[in-house]
Amino acid sequence: MHGRALLGAAIATLVALALPAAGTSKNRVQAAAPEFQLVFDGKHTPSLLHEGPFTTNASFCPSGYAMDTGVDSATETALRKFTCGSSGGFTAQLGRLPAEHGGSGIWHIVEGSGPLADLRGKGTWSSVRLGGTVTDPASITFRSTWKGAAALDAAPPTIAASKRSAQKLRRPKGAYRIRIVLSLNDAAGSAVSYTMAVIDPRRPNDWLATKSGATSSGTAAFSLRVRPAKRTRILHLKVDASDAVGNSTAFATTLRLR
Asked: Bridge partners of 145?
């Protein structure tokens, strides 16, 4: 069995108890990433990429012109460069491109330029066709509306395992109770989403347990019951985390069994 294919099974075998977040202030205020909206009126270039004017609700780039710079043919994901006049610009990844003629998808600002060098963001889009026909793709025009969050924040969240321990259980035979306290912090103060996997290195494709969630307190604590292979003495812990505007990072550590 393979870990990614068995994510549902791993969760089904997971026994997770939320523990109090020691030393965490209950009054900590979460700073939400600013809401970002963009409207793109698209048409086709001679190579059938998308281009057109856009407007946003953001003072740092109220309007401008956008053009696709390339498309991954395997995933139909496009890179689109948005130019905001004298205030720099940004590049976003979005998919799937054909759905923009009248459908929906996701977007992610991956880099900025000039004063917007640190701009990052993510969200969803939906489109409606304004004109043209499917028999003549070059004639199609459309309007794409983006909604999500964006901010001048290119720093990923930080991850650390502030506490971790393993206790061998009498029953069931070979089982352990592991306790983990993660420190997950975002410099901008937004919530951090995470996925943690507990992995037996003797069976790396068969995850023992997973846990996903989000925290705005800076701490996430778990008590998990796992049953590794008989001769396993070290477990691997892997954590992926991202903030409200899509900055992501990864963390790995080990836990010794006795």
From this structure: 39, 126
Cα 249 off chain centre by: 10
Q: Which fold has domain 35-152?
A: AOC barrel-like (2.40.350)
With left for phi above 0 and alpha for psi between -120 and 50, is residue 136 left, alpha or beta?
beta
* CATH 2.40.350 segments of the chain: 35-152
Spatial contact of 56 and 66, defined as CB atoms under 8 Å apart: no
Mean pLDDT per 10-residue section of the chain, whose length is 258 residues: 39 32 35 87 94 96 97 95 92 94 96 96 97 93 97 96 95 95 94 97 94 96 95 96 97 95
Residue among 207, 203, 159 nearest 184 (CA): 159
Q: Give the three-state DSSP class for 75.
A: coil
